[in-house]
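Input record, target 12 of the design panel.
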């Protein structure tokens, strides 16, 4: 099954996919997060509604889409998690490296990416995102996929301009390396991602969350990014360096995962599509939109661009 969240008559409603073109508004369901939390009880009720109740059915273009999980507790993003990056990383960890994107940055399918000229260059990053079903801590690699409810699409917008502006090159203070009470200074670079990854509307997501039975292998999905009708780049999630299970097991050693948390797996783009170009060449501030991200088995996330 596939689920989304829309605004209907001024309130949030859960919609379930009937087919590629139609969705059904579900009655008596407070939120998708609640469906996820009560999935064993909710699943048969939803299946019955899909089989018998078509009164709330509409074409998908008629919906006012919101993020599937409008206010997740956490949006965890995995950095530099694709095989195209290995020859560009001069030093870095062998484990997944992560940052948080605020829930306030999320927007739904069809909602506008709002940019300002002083944001500088802003480019898309098409990504598979994991929706956590059952939370936990210290989750084992072998059971990690049992904690997944489903998968959705995220466009992890990034501003290299703001990244450069928020990067420090400084001398970090460390204890003396000889064990004395003195200090040593280490030449260090550090950048903080709040603006360049977490500004408002920098997290287009959705429209659908596909349940795990719809996605038997999250590491065999085609991702395609299209800008203004032109394929920019395409690849397969097989090229992720760290798998979904790797990331869940690693993250849960440090941060408790909770129901309806989201993990964006990183840009799975090993190489540009034929005739395409790197996503970094798609400057949405200068070129505008729309920008589309499609993942096989899930759907297409499309967003226009609005300059403020």
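The sequence produced for target 12 reads:
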């Amino acid at each position: 099954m596939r689920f989304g969240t829309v605004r209907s008559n001024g309130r949030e409603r859960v919609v379930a996919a009937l087919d590629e073109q139609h969705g059904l508004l579900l009655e008596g369901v407070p939120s998708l997060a609640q469906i996820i939390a009560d999935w064993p009880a909710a699943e048969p009720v939803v299946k019955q509604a899909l089989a018998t109740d078509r009164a709330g059915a509409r074409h998908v273009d008629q919906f006012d889409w919101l993020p599937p999980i409008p206010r997740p507790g956490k949006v965890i993003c995995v950095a530099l998690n694709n095989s195209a990056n290995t020859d560009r990383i001069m030093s870095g960890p062998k484990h997944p490296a992560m940052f948080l994107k605020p829930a306030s940055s999320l927007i739904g399918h069809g909602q506008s990416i709002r940019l300002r000229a002083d944001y500088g260059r802003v480019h898309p990053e098409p990504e598979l995102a994991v929706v956590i079903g059952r939370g936990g801590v210290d989750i084992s690699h072998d059971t990690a996929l049992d904690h997944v409810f489903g998968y959705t699409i995220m466009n992890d917008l990034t501003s290299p301009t703001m990244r450069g502006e928020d990067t420090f090159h400084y001398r970090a203070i460390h204890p003396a390396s000889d064990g004395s009470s003195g200090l040593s200074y280490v030449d260090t670079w550090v950048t903080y991602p709040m603006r360049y990854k977490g500004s408002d509307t920098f997290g287009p997501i959705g429209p659908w969350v596909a349940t795990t039975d719809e996605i038997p292998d999250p590491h065999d999905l085609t991702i395609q990014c299209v800008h203004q009708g032109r394929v920019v780049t395409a690849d397969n999630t097989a090229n992720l360096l760290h798998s979904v299970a790797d990331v869940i097991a690693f993250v849960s050693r440090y941060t408790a995962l909770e129901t309806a948390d989201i993990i964006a797996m990183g840009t799975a783009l090993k190489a540009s599509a034929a005739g395409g170009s790197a996503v970094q060449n798609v400057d949405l501030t200068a070129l505008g939109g729309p920008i589309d991200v499609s993942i096989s088995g899930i759907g297409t996330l499309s967003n226009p661009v609005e300059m403020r």
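The CA atoms of residues 122 and 284 lie 6 Å apart.
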